[in-house]
Amino acid sequence: MKILVTDADGQLGRALDRLLSARGIPSIMLSDAQLDLSDANAVAAALEHHQPDYVVNARMFGDLEPQEPEPSGWDLAYEQGVRVLADACQRAGAALLHLSSERVFDGSKATAYTENDTLQPVTPIGRSQQRAETAVREHCEHSLILRSSWIFGPDGHNFLTYIIDQAQTSDVIRIVDTQRGCPTAAVDLARVVLAMLEQVDCDVEPALWGIYHYAGSDVTHWHIFAEAIVKAAKKYLEGEVDTVEAVYLSAEDQSRRPQNLELSTRKILATFGIKQMPWRRGVQDALKECFEGPDMQGRDILS
Question: What CATH number corresponds to the domain at position 213?
């Protein structure tokens, strides 16, 4: 099994790099600078040169707060890149695992979203991700779409690293608290990606291609997530935050934001036997890596 990973310098890409290296699995890690997914010729050449069995499109959008940036052209480039990659995988005979998120839903459901729920995104990123999912399904026969949520870890700019920065410079951290959802450690998501590919590689019947959800357990709110990070980080930080304050928006502003972004993981458990990892454990592991450095040699994080 040979795996090519795009966006290798992102959160999930770095987590996959450490995991695949620790497991001794042949892999090619390509950053955005090394491979422009919107360049069809470059993508086709990369797949022909490396001849991977599987391609993981590890592009994820960071969650800092439940706020949505205005689009600035990134969405068209993202959608085009996914379409090009899916088409190239189909032509090269490589299977594609594409990462998506809970943002493809409108957040109005009272219970956790399943893979069969209607897609109705209300944010620019969500609409772009919906179109990207459609491109994967239409252009690549052997594909997996994995939706996750609230990705955090020691790499890059995400909610955990944002809270750490705030904790070192502020007495009070204020968090807009309009959503509930399930934080997911990048290292945990890497574990899931590899577990899925290993089982698909066994050619089981019926084929496992399709859409799946994975997120950490348990469901929480943004300010509780922030409080857990601050509490776990106290042993590493010299300063100490006095308060993590939940900020509540007006009814009008709140109505424009998804309220519930919880994902059901029953299908991935029933199909792959993959169980959720508590996100609080992921916070502790990520903070240890942030402040003490990675310790992956000889460690099998699938255990």
Answer: 3.40.50.720
